[in-house]
Write a structure and sequence with these properties.
This protein is of the alpha+beta class. It has nine helices and eleven strands.
Length: 249
Amino acid sequence: MMRGIDLTRPIDYLDASFRYFKEQERHMTRTCVCDVLLLMFDGVLRFSEDGVSYELHPGEYHIQKQGSYQTGDRVSNAPKYLYLHFKGEWTENAPNLPCCGTFDLQKLKPSMEALDELYHSGATKVAQLAKVYEIFALLSQTPNPHTIANEVARFIENASEVSLQELSNEFHFSKNHIINLFKAEYGMTPVEYSNNHKLKKAERLLEVTSNSVKQIADACGFHDYAYFYKLFCRKNGVSPVKWRQERRM
């Protein structure tokens, strides 16, 4: 999966506003001191980020990462967009909001206008933050492109247990071809994705139930407790018991 903002973690919202460029104006040269979400609704914005050129059109978004270096190396075509300054946690795991993509402009524009109005009218941070989360939620609802890798991911999520042989039989590709397709899009193998999906379910059950760790491991499809324990500690840096204790403090 493409690297993006972790949607399971809080977003530290700073400020937001519409920005209208003049004709022949360029993007500023700067090092980002925070993450910046750009939501385009008119014109064309051109800039380079850490040496990579970008061109944003209406209905496209881009998240400039904190610490990245931007330059206005090309003239933009009078772009209009909403910028949203925030600090988030980046991850390659799902669910996340990828660093760039498209959105339904007609659906999102009212929320963009509302946030701009809230910020400039001096509304409470709570009111602004509610609109910020609404925007991130709407962006995250943009459907993923229809690819074999996405079909494999959905199949894994809906199966209690799955093997590479089952995936090969279901999608009529060799096991190696499925691994290569999946890894190219998600950055991990189908087995690793399956384990991450089951670990997230285990984390949820540890937090909201009083079932034993062994019962939860079994319920999530880990019938080898030692294997589950090893994967959980590697992913979270703490044991399942410690995870539960920290979530209930």
